[in-house]
Design brief:
Elements: E1 14-17, E2 20-21, E3 27-29, E4 32-35, E5 39-42, E6 45-50, E7 53-57, E8 60-63, E9 68-73, E10 76-79, E11 84-85
Parallel strand pairs: 1-4, 2-5, 3-6, 4-7, 5-8, 6-9, 7-10, 8-11
């Protein structure tokens, strides 16, 4: 599967530590690190392209109803202890 054309240029890293982020448009990050008591909330039809790696540990990703996440990772994905997806 290839990354769709039209994703933005890299915005650098996305580092989330003990906070919430809600991307509602397409993004291209060099890497993503989501660590600790934080949440990545997906609102809408969102494409996230990650150049290197994606690491989530003791954090959560919530995809809101009627929303979709398209995630493309160039290197590796690490799901650590306590990583949750749509957990209430």
């Amino acid at each position: 599967m290839s990354v769709p054309r039209g994703t933005p240029l890299s915005e650098g890293p996305l580092l989330l530590f003990s906070r919430t982020a809600t991307p509602s448009s397409d993004h291209h990050y060099s890497l993503i690190l989501i660590w600790g008591k934080c949440t990545l909330v997906i609102d809408g039809d969102v494409t996230i392209r990650v150049g290197a790696w994606y690491w989530i540990n003791a954090a959560r990703i919530d995809v809101l109803p009627e929303s979709r996440l398209h995630l493309y990772v160039g290197d590796w994905v690490m799901l650590g202890t306590g990583a949750l997806l749509n957990a209430s």
